[in-house]
Amino acid sequence: MLVAVTENGRFVQANELTVQAKTKLYHCPACKGAVRLKMGEVNLPYFAHVNLIECDNFAEGESAGHLTGKLAIRDYF
Ligand SMILES: [Zn+2]
After folding, report:
1. How far apart are the CA of 20 and the centre of ligand 1, in A?
2. How many Å lie between the centroid of ligand 1 and the Cα of residue 58?
3. Mind listing the pLDDT tens digit for each residue in 20-32?
């Protein structure tokens, strides 16, 4: 997922964070489960659930191309 919620209840986008944010804990906007920032050199930054849980509202495992497309659509609108 591209968006998560901070401990202060603020929405943040993965692509707006720096590598230091990888140590912080965020929450899934849908199920409120714990998520962490995943940031590498190849793929776009994204949030992934810490524990494997059922969360139908936010897809994970999306390819870099798919995530890029979602960001492009968001930026267009
Ligand atoms: Zn979730």
Report:
1. 22
2. 6
3. 889 999 999 889 9
